[in-house]
Write a structure and sequence with these properties.
With about 400 residues, the protein is of the alpha+beta class. The protein has 14 helices and 14 strands. It has a single domain, classed as Penicillin V Acylase, Chain A (4-Layer Sandwich). Helix 8 packs across helix 9.
C-alpha cells in the first residue's frame, strides 16, 4: 500500500539514507514479508543472499550506493537489502494495466500516460503496520545531484519504481507478462538462480538517464541484451510525441515504437503474443477494453478521460476490469493509480496525478489524490500523504457505484 510520500535529494547514498531513516519500520516490515514469503517456498536466506551477491555487478554503481545508504539508515545489512532489491519482483510480481495516447492521439497533442498498480496480497503482510495484507508502498520525489528528477511510486526499501515521470517529460510504467514459458518453469526457483535484472530498477535507470523515450530505452537495452528481466514483462517509456514499449522474456526481446497512436499493456505480450498464455482471461479482457476505450476516444484523450478509464468496471467489477476488485487478499487488485500529462514545450510543467487507494474511490475524493507538476518541492506534499492515513481510508474492495 502507499503509506507515505517523501522528497529526497542529494547524491544517491544520501537519498537512500534519508529513505532508510524515515522509513525504518516500513522497510523492516517489507523485509520480514519478503523473507517469510521465500521461506514458505523453501528458499534459504543464505542461498538467496549468495545469489544476489553474484548479480551485484549487473547493477549500476549509483543504485548500489543508494541501497548502501538505505541499509545504513535502516540499520540492516547491505547484503540483505540488496537481495530484497534483486529478487523482489520474483517474490511479489507486479500486475498492472498501462494505457497511453501518444502525441496527436491525445487531446493536447502531447502524450497522456496512465498506470493502475495492481498487486496480490500475502499472508506475510501482517503486524501493526500492515493493512489488509498488502505491501507498504511509498510515493517519492527523487531529485539526485546527478540525473533527472523523478516522481514515482516504489515499495518501501526498494530503489526500483513501479511507475513514474522525470522532469524531461518522460513517463514510464512496467508490468509482468504471464507467459507459457513462465508457467512451464513451475516455480520461481530458476528465477532465483538465473542472471536476471529487476524490471522496476530498469525503469528507474531509464527515467534517471533518458531525456526522451528513446534515450530511456537505449539506457537499459544493453543490459537486457546480456541478462533478461527477472520475470517476463513489459517496460513502457513515453515522451510528448513518441513511446517505446519493451517486451522481454527469458530468451526473446522485442520493441514497439508508438507515434500519434494509442497503445496499452496488461499482463500480456502483444508483439511477442505467441508466448502469451491463452487462459489468462483477466489480461485479455483488460487489454481489449483498454484498446476499445482508447480507439473510441482517439484524438480526444485528456487527463480527465484517462482518470475515468482507470476507474472502468467493464467486464466486472472484478479481476477482469481495469479497476480491479477481489474478494480475498490473495487476488491481484488495484491499489493505486498514476496519470501523467506530458508538456512537450515545457517538460517541467508536465503534470502528475496520483490516486492513493482504489481508483474508483480515490479519484472521486479531493483528499485521496494529488495533482502536481515536476517543479514540486518538499513543502508541496499534503500532510495526509505524509502520514499514510489516506490510503487506508480509500483502499477497499467494495466497488464504487457510478
Amino acid at each position: 500500500m502507499i503509506q507515505r510520500m517523501l522528497y529526497c535529494d542529494g547524491n544517491h547514498f544520501e537519498m537512500g539514507r534519508k529513505q532508510g531513516e524515515l522509513l525504518k519500520s516500513e522497510i523492516r516490515h517489507n523485509l520480514f514479508a519478503f523473507w517469510s514469503a521465500l521461506k514458505n517456498r523453501s528458499y534459504g536466506k543464505k542461498e538467496v543472499i549468495r545469489n544476489a551477491m553474484k548479480l551485484e555487478k549487473l547493477w549500476r554503481p549509483c543504485r548500489l550506493e543508494e541501497i548502501e545508504g538505505m541499509a545504513r539508515g535502516v540499520r540492516v545489512g547491505y547484503r540483505e537489502l540488496l537481495a530484497y532489491n534483486v529478487f523482489h519482483d520474483v517474490a511479489f510480481p507486479e500486475g498492472c494495466t498501462v494505457m497511453m495516447a501518444v502525441g496527436n492521439a491525445s487531446e493536447t497533442g502531447d502524450t497522456i500516460f496512465m498506470k493502475n498498480s495492481d498487486k496480490v496480497g500475502s499472508e506475510t503482510y501482517v503486524g501493526p503496520l500492515a493493512y489488509k495484507n498488502k505491501e507498504l508502498n511509498i510515493a517519492l520525489c527523487l531529485d539526485p545531484a546527478e540525473g533527472n528528477k523523478t516522481i514515482g511510486v516504489a515499495a518501501a526499501g526498494q530503489t526500483a519504481l513501479k511507475m513514474g515521470m522525470n522532469d524531461k517529460g518522460v513517463a514510464s510504467g512496467c508490468n509482468i507478462s504471464r507467459t507459457k514459458e513462465l508457467t512451464a518453469r513451475g516455480t520461481e526457483k530458476d528465477a532465483i538462480q538465473i542472471k536476471a535484472l529487476d524490471r522496476g530498477a530498469l525503469l528507474r535507470d531509464g527515467l534517471e538517464e533518458g531525456n526522451t523515450a528513446v534515450e530511456a530505452a537505449q539506457a537499459i537495452l544493453p543490459g537486457l541484451l546480456v541478462s533478461p528481466m527477472s520475470t517476463p514483462g513489459n517496460i513502457e517509456f513515453a515522451d510528448a510525441g513518441e513511446a517505446v514499449i519493451i517486451e522481454g522474456s527469458y530468451t526473446e526481446l522485442a520493441t514497439q515504437i508508438v507515434r500519434d497512436a494509442v497503445a496499452a499493456r496488461s499482463n500480456r505480450f502483444v508483439v511477442l503474443e505467441a508466448l502469451a498464455r491463452d487462459d489468462d482471461l483477466s489480461s485479455i479482457c483488460r487489454y481489449v477494453r483498454c484498446m476499445q476505450l482508447l480507439e473510441e476516444n482517439k484524438g480526444k484523450v485528456s487527463m480527465k478521460k484517462m482518470i475515468e478509464f482507470s476507474q472502468d468496471h467493464a467486464n466486472g467489477p472484478g479481476p477482469n476490469s481495469i479497476c480491479r476488485h477481489g474478494t480475498h487478499f490473495l487476488e491481484e487488485t488495484s491499489l493505486s493509480s498514476m496519470v501523467m500529462e506530458i508538456n512537450g514545450k515545457e517538460p517541467e510543467k508536465s503534470r502528475v496525478a496520483i490516486a492513493l487507494g482504489k481508483p474508483c474511490h480515490a479519484w472521486r475524493s479531493d483528499e485521496a489524490h494529488i495533482v502536481m507538476d515536476m517543479s514540486m518541492g518538499p513543502d508541496d506534499i499534503p500532510e495526509g500523504l505524509k502520514n499514510g492515513e489516506i490510503w487506508k481510508k480509500y483502499y477497499t474492495e467494495t466497488p464504487k457505484t457510478f
